[in-house]
Amino acid sequence: MHKPKPRLAIFASGRGSNAEALMHAFERDFLPADLALVLSNKPQAPVLDIAEKHGYPIACVSNEGLSREAHEVQVLETLRQAEVEHIVLAGYMRILTPAFLEAFKAQGGGAIINIHPSLLPDFPGMHAIERQHEAKVAIAGATVHHVIDQVDAGPTILQGSLEVRGDEDAEELGRRIREEVEHDLYPRALRLFLDRLDTPITQDPKVVI
Ligand code: GRF
Questions:
Q1: Is 116 labeled as catalytic in the residue annotation?
Q2: What residue segments make up the domains of the chain, in order of their start?
Q3: Is the CB of 12 under 6 A from ligand 1?
Q4: Tens of pLDDT along 21-44?
Q5: What pTM did the predictor assign?
Q6: 124 ligand 1 Cβ < 6 A
Q7: CATH 3.40.50.170 correct for 7-110
């Protein structure tokens, strides 16, 4: 009998270009998993329309007027109902609290994975693109990593880089990072993670097998 595929949720707050790159990867059977849910905290987020167009289940759990804790409780319940095992953050503009990470694990949740637009450990946190632009870095890039209870500090799964031309403004640099690095990197990193899920030796992402 076939083992059921892992059930994933994508979390995104806005444009959703990485989410869409992942949807394309699901559609060409590149990812051995099911996309069980696309969740946003913003009712107007374009990513919800994109997911609907692609035919994936969507949920909006708005944080408007809610405490961080109350919002996270609703998100956890939504994940429980959709039987989500792993979370893939793609431009989700909220930091998940340590309490959320604990509670997700307690309800049987697995990994939480994020993509950050810099070569971590350089430029963690907010405005990473603008800060790389101001610092006039020669090489920029993106990192796919596991989420832990410190921001942008979890174990790296995969990184990708590009050579900065030097004439880009910050907006153009962001576009290049997304289109030339992230949209290819995120599906490959997720594939790597999924392929290793069945490895019986260890689940520790830092251990090379
Ligand atoms: C990406 O640059 C990603 O690295 C960061 O947020 C941005 C999301 O862009 N976490 P999009 O919504 O996927 O287009």
A1: yes
A2: 7-110
A3: yes
A4: 999 999 999 999 999 999 999 999
A5: 0.94
A6: no
A7: yes
